[in-house]
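Technical annex, item 7. During the second reporting period the consortium partners agreed on a shared format for inverse folding records so that results from different sites could be compared directly. Each record opens with the tokenized structure and is followed by the designed sequence. A conforming record, contributed by the partner at site C, is shown below for reference.
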């Protein structure tokens, strides 16, 4: 349920209404726009007397929201959310590129890639320390040592770091991580999402392998229900019957999510396609359809990568992608 507040209402009046609603065991999310102030009511609103609420002096209109995701809903929060990741803003017209290797392999590797990514215009450094792999015999990442190497790369370049968490028990290791990634396999790990909701860290929430947009937004809702509203959605392809690509990149999700939610949306063409030569056209397409950012895998020697070399770009290829993407952004902004 949302209550649209009349213009010219004082902060004291809004505060009084908030206290009254909270006394009815409701959580109140306040969204102040340039022209409109909206109160989002979360909880059991069935007992709320809509007519009584609408007749209050400061209330213009009351609406019920049918979608199960409330806090993530654009009706609750008409303006785009801007997530600040250690100075790098994403959403609300702010575009960011997250790039780096699938997995951190050595200090030399991550620093070399980080420097090249930054030179090309990348704004955040990604690198896997804990790696969820389909086979238990594949490289599982350097884990805590990998996080330390990411911090060294951050010191060398000044770039905020992005890496994936797999277990809530590892949260203490992620204190210096700027953006915590929840991978596709953990999108519906609700206990992990609840714990992330208790943190103040920005969260990059990837879409599950075969999940609908509604299920994806409900996962975001789990985090937001805990109090953490700094969430970035990441479209990374879904599993279909197609076999020529690793997954099928659902670019229609970008404008659809923009309509449904206020959260920023980035696109990962690397995981979506699984083929490096497809990353450039898909990255350009993602920008053209309104994405707030990109997440691209870059490796200094993809042929010898310990993880996902087939979908990784070389630094030179990434530089070319960034030049093309910049041109598309200029056209989109016109």
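Designed sequence (site C submission):
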């Amino acid at each position: 349920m949302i209550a649209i507040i009349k213009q010219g209402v004082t902060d004291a009046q809004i505060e009084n209404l908030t206290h009254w609603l909270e006394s009815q065991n409701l959580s109140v999310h306040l969204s102040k726009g340039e022209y409109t102030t909206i109160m989002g009511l979360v909880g059991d609103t069935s007992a709320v007397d809509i007519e009584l609420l609408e007749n209050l002096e400061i209330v213009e209109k009351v609406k019920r929201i049918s979608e199960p995701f409330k806090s993530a809903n654009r009706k609750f929060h008409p303006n785009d959310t801007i997530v600040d990741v250690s100075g790098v803003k994403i959403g609300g017209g702010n575009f960011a590129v997250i790039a780096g290797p699938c997995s951190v392999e050595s200090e030399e590797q991550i620093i070399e890639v980080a420097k090249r990514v930054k030179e090309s215009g990348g704004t955040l450094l990604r690198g896997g320390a804990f790696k969820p792999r389909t086979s238990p015999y594949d490289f599982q990442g350097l884990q805590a040592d990998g996080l330390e190497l990411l911090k060294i790369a951050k010191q060398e370049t000044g770039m905020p770091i992005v890496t994936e968490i797999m277990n809530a028990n590892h949260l203490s290791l992620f204190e210096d991580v700027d953006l915590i990634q929840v991978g596709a396999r953990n999108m519906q790990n609700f206990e992990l999402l609840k714990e992330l909701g208790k943190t103040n860290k920005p969260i990059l929430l990837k879409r599950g392998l075969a999940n609908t947009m509604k299920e994806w937004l409900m996962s975001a809702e789990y985090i937001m229900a805990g109090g953490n509203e700094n969430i970035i959605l990441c479209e990374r392809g879904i599993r279909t019957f197609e076999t020529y690509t690793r997954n099928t990149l659902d670019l229609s999700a970008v404008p659809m999510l923009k309509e449904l939610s206020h959260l920023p949306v980035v696109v990962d063409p690397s995981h979506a396609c699984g083929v490096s030569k497809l990353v450039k056209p898909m990255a350009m397409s993602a920008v053209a359809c309104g994405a707030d950012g990109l997440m691209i895998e870059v490796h200094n020697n993809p042929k010898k990568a310990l993880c996902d070399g087939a979908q990784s770009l070389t630094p030179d290829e990434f530089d070319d992608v960034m030049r093309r993407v910049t041109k598309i952004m200029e056209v989109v902004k016109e």
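The CA atoms of residues 173 and 306 lie 23 Å apart. The chain has ten helices and 14 strands. All partners now use this format for quarterly exchanges.
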